[in-house]
Amino acid sequence: MISEKPRVRFAPSPTGYLHIGGLRTALYNYLFAKHNDGKFVLRIEDTDRNRYIEGAVENLIKSLKWGGLEYDEGPNIGGQFGPYMQSQRLDLYKKYAADLIANGKAYYCFCTTERLEKLREEQQRQKLPQAKYDKHCLHLSKEEIEENLSKGVPHVVRLNVEANKKIIFNDVVRGQVEFNSSNVDDQVLIKSDGYPTYHLANVVDDYLMKITHVIRGEEWLSSTPKHVLLYDFFAWEKPVFAHLPLLLNPDRSKLSKRQGDVAVEDYRIKGFLKEALINFVALLGWNAGDDKEFYYMNELIENFSLERVNKSGAVFDLEKLNWLNAEHLRKKPNTDILQMIKEEGKKLNIDYQNFSDDYLLKIISVMKERVSFVNEYFTKSFFFFEAPRTYEQAAIEKNWKSETPGQLNKLHDAFTSLTNPLKEDYENALAKVAEELNIGKGKLIHPLRLAVSGMSAGPGVFDILFILGKDETIKRIRAAIDKIGKS
Ligand code: GLU
């Protein structure tokens, strides 16, 4: 535990959905806050009006809440406890920009797009490593500036970065990080539409919201020198920085849509459990120092520390996510799985009237070890919900011999004479028939399985018979004899 109670924030720009990388950032902030008895703030960085997307904020909050990442505070927006929205705080940013201008740390720039374009072309021609503004407007006289402003000439406000200075900051994940200010552009702080850029709004808000730790993705590392300059110009204490490692595809390229799903929503729709996704995402760049991989949220909170976040890129391994999903699903109480199956069944339009809770619970007990996703209770054991219409061809070829129908007929009769049979009763009856026929039990078991389930693999065949019940069992044996016949 750190002594001061930390305040952290997740500060997404609303792009329409929550990216897996965003979920990881939000989660690490959340875990850090909860571990240290601190606060987790949600701030929507929506100052780029060109990128405004209807419903994006709602989507984002929905995905966060689905994952269990409830934020702790926010202003009252229209009677609702909302996240902080930067678009509703514009006056603040203008005020702070004005302070910087007054202190010579920022300046008005009236350059036209054409001039900036020419400058860029010229710098490219000179093969400069990076296009930078040439501080042309820094040298305008007070009168020129006043005149331009009063005439309403379009302008931006730029950060006045002094060249050849070392910008040094500490990052919990990567140690001391050093930049040379000559590589930092005179960043636009206020755009011509009057909206702040990310850099200004982000720093002002982190300061005003008393954020103690800035935990965000590595892609923001190159912005940090600009932020450090801003903190210094304002004479504000800097937060602790922690830049989380990049998320990579298995081929170590940057995690992208092209190689798979990147929206949290996609995983939810595909049937991943939130527990599994959270567990998986927590391990994308962090471990507790041992090889434990299965975690519940409370264990993550208990064990999380920024010091154990890795520097190197974290590979998104779908196999592992599938495995975690299976593990989390398996560890759920059967009664919870029952509810989940019912919900899944509704989606698949399966009529439950015919299937009692007791029946479904029996299916759960035999299928639990065999499924990784809730929907597999249907896809892998559809035969519990309807009689097979087809039979696996390869299994017919392998196990259904010309003598099989006759043998199954005997089995059919033996089962018919049982009263309220339990699993063992089917088993004993089958053993007896095998003995009478002087054949191995397998000669009956394989075709029997095929007859009742249509498949060659699955849970124990006597479990299947017991769950289906005697009437259904003998009906299916008869149907298979008729349908597959002598083959
Ligand atoms: N608005 C930035 C984003 O979209 C926030 C980066 C930061 O956390 O500073 O991720």
Please name the defining characteristics of this protein.
487 residues; mainly alpha; Rossmann fold; Arc Repressor Mutant, subunit A; 3 domains; 3-stranded parallel β-sheet; 3-stranded antiparallel β-sheet; 20 helices; 45% helix; 11% strand; binds glutamic acid
Give a brief rundown of this model:
The protein has 487 residues and is mainly alpha-helical. The chain has helices spanning 20-35, 56-66, 90-102, 113-125, 142-151, 198-208, 224-234, 264-269, 274-282, 297-303, 318-330, 334-347, 357-367, 376-379, 393-399, 404-416, 423-437, 442-453, 461-468, 470-484; strands at residues 7-10, 39-44, 76-77, 80-81, 84-85, 106-109, 156-159, 166-171, 175-180, 188-190, 213-217, 240-244, 247-248, 314-315. 45% of the residues lie in helices and 11% in strands.
Written overview of the protein:
The structure is a single chain. The protein is mainly alpha-helical. It has three domains: 7-74 and 247-321, 3-Layer(aba) Sandwich (Rossmann fold), CATH 3.40.50.620; 90-244, Rossmann fold (3-Layer(aba) Sandwich); 336-484, Arc Repressor Mutant, subunit A, CATH 1.10.10.350. It is 45% helix and 11% strand. The chain is built from 20 helices and 14 strands. The chain has helices spanning 20-35, 56-66, 90-102, 113-125, 142-151, 198-208, 224-234, 264-269, 274-282, 297-303, 318-330, 334-347, 357-367, 376-379, 393-399, 404-416, 423-437, 442-453, 461-468, 470-484; strands at residues 7-10, 39-44, 76-77, 80-81, 84-85, 106-109, 156-159, 166-171, 175-180, 188-190, 213-217, 240-244, 247-248, 314-315. The strands form six sheets. Strands 1-2-5 form a three-stranded parallel sheet. Strands 6-7-10 form a three-stranded antiparallel sheet. The chain has a two-stranded antiparallel ribbon with strand order 3-4. The protein is elongated, with a radius of gyration of 32 Å. The N and C termini lie far apart (71 Å). 34% of the residues are buried. The mean pLDDT is 94. The chain binds glutamic acid. Glutamic acid binds at residues 11-13, 45, 198, 202, 216, 220. Residues 11-13, 45, 198, 202, 216, 220 line the site of glutamic acid.
